Amino acid sequence: MKNAGTVLMYNCSGEEFSKLKQIFAMLRLRMRVVEPDRYHVCLDELARGEGEAGETAPPLPEPMLVFCYLPQALLNQVLEVIRVAKLPPIPLKAVLTETNQEWDTHQLYEELLREREAIAAQKEEKG
Prior knowledge:
Blueprint: E1 5-10, H1 18-26, E2 29-33, H2 43-47, E3 64-68, H3 72-84, E4 92-95, H4 105-126
Parallel strand pairs: 1-2, 3-4
Antiparallel strand pairs: 1-3
């Protein structure tokens, strides 16, 4: 059966993520665990299972998911199933786009941190 898309998974090992992996398998999503020795590879290559391992970087300090090649309706379904399943929160989530497909893991991580800080600042302003 054809897979429905790919999810790049960072720091999603351990028992607390087994249910998440079951959900992805049920929805026929290909899971690619990204190890620190591949953080330098661009996201598009990681999504396609390409890119050579290099020097090992320090692991990201928190889990992160990158959804690749999912139709919008399926992405919405995945996010809803995760929400309903009451899994441990993974605040860092992204979708592979034309803008970020050439970024490496560190570039994406830094951008997601900036977005999170901007959202937190907006919430403080509204108050």
